[in-house]
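User: two proteins, same treatment. go.

Assistant:
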Amino acid sequence: MTKSPTQRRAFIGAIAGAMALSTLGLGAAYAQSAEPIRIGLIYSKQGPGAAIGQYLQRGSELAVEQAGGKVLGRPIELVWLDEPNPQVSQQNMQRLVDESKVVAVVGGNYSSSALAMMSVANREKIPLILTGAAASEITGKSCSRYTFRTQATVPVQMEGLMPYVSQIGKKVYFITASYAFGQDILRASRALLKKVGATEVGVDEVPINTADYSSYILKIRQAKPDVVVGGLVGGDFSNFLKQWNEMGMKDKIPYAAIAVTDTDFWDVGAQASTGIYVKPWYYNNPKNTAAEKKMTADFEKKYHEPPSDKTWSGWIGMRALLESIEAAKSTDPKAIVTQLEKWKNTEEAFPFFFREWDHQMVRPAVIVGVKKQITDKWDYFDVLKNTSDSAASTEAAFGTKEEVGCNMPPL
């Protein structure tokens, strides 16, 4: 049938409109594929935790670089905000959600800040991977469906450390930070004293940013303990060890602690460094995996120094997130959480993973001792052993659901 001129114009117009719509659709799809996926970082930029924050951030950034800077075929944009105290950390978590429109957040070194950040993650339904905080309530009574944690809990670390402490001596003095992390150390250690045949002879809970530890050290000297168990963090720990050495205590009373980081000792220096410690990871551990050795090599090439254990924590937290986003094929928060609950790393002697019912990473920590003679600028430790030596003993060390006390709501 022959079309009239008016019909022909209408037909041509319809075709042109359809082509325009198709072009617009392709353009929109292209624009979406080019739009970056934003991931938030909350790590300390100032104060006693600044060095820790820098190594955490570098580890997370390196994981992104090793992934080619993309996830789901789209560029990754990292937005790094500060972790100076719980209130500001909570505000910065909210800013990342409201202003930066992040799909997830990696960060949280201090337990007090982490607990504050968790309230935002839960309310806004944004996945949060905590890479440093060790207080047990994070994956215990305060657990959240949207929060995951890479650091072993304080009770797990103390369970590994206290047998070593009891071999040194039976009279124990505690010096810990006066917030959630330090209080958790006291609870866990005191619960283990009878088991290892030790007794408490003194305790001090110290405020953050304490500059002068001389009065505390004098109290320890007067109490004459066999060993000191510490729970100080970052610059506070560095200050303590320096003054401990200056006051002639380094070879007088042994010191033991958990959740320390390499930068503490690099800051203190070889002369003042001493003690036995539990750490999540050590760069010069012969048992490190091929992926961890590659991360170490990549880090050394970029920064001309080895990675700290905090580098590993920031790296594995970001790596787990990126792999889970890829597995989800989506940036939908529920889809990411679901895949994080299924995520498993099979590169080590036995697999490690986020436990589905409390989101705690189940993996042994490593017990290290400061070398008698430190001859390398960076290598301060001898690796003594893991805190557990099998998959079954590791899972048992992290406690049962009843012991942990996490009751998570449905997703």
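Protein 2:
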Amino acid sequence: MPAVSNVSSFRKVTPGILASQRLAMSNDIPDIGKSEVAIALKRAAQPIGLTSTAYHVLDILLGLSKPDDWKGDNRPVVAISNEKLASYVGKSERTVIRAIKQLVEARILAYRDSSTGRRWVHRNDSGDITFAYGLDFTPARVRYREIKRLADEWQAHLNAVREAKRTVMRISRAIVDIVDATKDVDLTDFLDQMAGTLDAEIDVQAKAQALLDLYDLVMEALKEASNTQSTAHKNGDSSCEDDINVTPIFNTNSPDSCSNKRTSAHADEIKNKTNVAYGAEIAPEREQAERGGGSNRGYTLQKGSGKADFVRSETLDAVSISLLESACTSIQGDFGLSLKSWPDLIAATDVLRIGIGLSEKGFTEACGRLGRHVAAAILAMVAEKALRDPEKISSPGGYFRACCERATEGKLALAKSLFGLAAR
């Protein structure tokens, strides 16, 4: 079919119409089929700025065009009257005429008018178009790559906005959880800043970035407060002024009483005491009265050194059962567990232990060193990470032991890990 594109004299020519006519007369037509162009046009309808009526007209015209007319360097032309097209769309003829003009000025269609204004297509015996007057889709074929790029950019924008909305929801919930879980440090100012960010007249992506920055500030404040408390515990006196609500357990046995190899008439009694001491050492820690009455943190004392006891209580700083529940969503869904309370977490340890391939002895030793609640919280965190990123953690059992070693040394940031899981 010859590259002819005529505009009747009754039309008012605009720069957009002239641009479409030039594209329609182009001889450099990419070999792009109907389906590819149709998908690109529909995906790019919103960034192009098509109205609902224009989109409806475009959909009908694409359906009327034949796939063979889109092959090679052919020029697909659709011949349909405005009256019939208006009946298909359910609009008036003037509305359809305006919709077609919008498609032409968007450089999707081009006018191919006859001298009388009628539209028809003449084909030869093989079905190829010889002469055609109507609406030409050649501009859309020529601009296929540009239209596809617009569609991809628009889809990327939609994905970014959707992810930003999720980030705003996750981070705001995480900040609220941190403030609620931290009783010894006043972090209410961060809640006011978060409320101001949420109410600000900015786009959602800017809100997400502002909340991420605020979350980093909250974590820095929490870490600084934790370091201050740690220094105070290490450098403070040994008075019991702040330990009124804590019931200490004193070890009255001699340090050598369990390792003395001398025999006596009461050797069997000494041996039994040794076994009892060893059993108490590996058993889960006894729950003591909580500091401050209603605090959720696990401040506990157990037979052994005071330093080890502080390490165990420090690990659960800023860790509440609600934080564990919001952070460990995968293990709850995959294993069918409930983490509504600490007893629920303790009851789930056997399932979690088997799930990560940890032996009963390994978990029992962790309970003896750190306490039952600390070991259970670490176990839940490790199982959650193993489910989310199985390729990153090749040996969950070894990872659990490594976390317990760091907790013993006071270097495990369990709260930070849980807040990170909750925010993802």
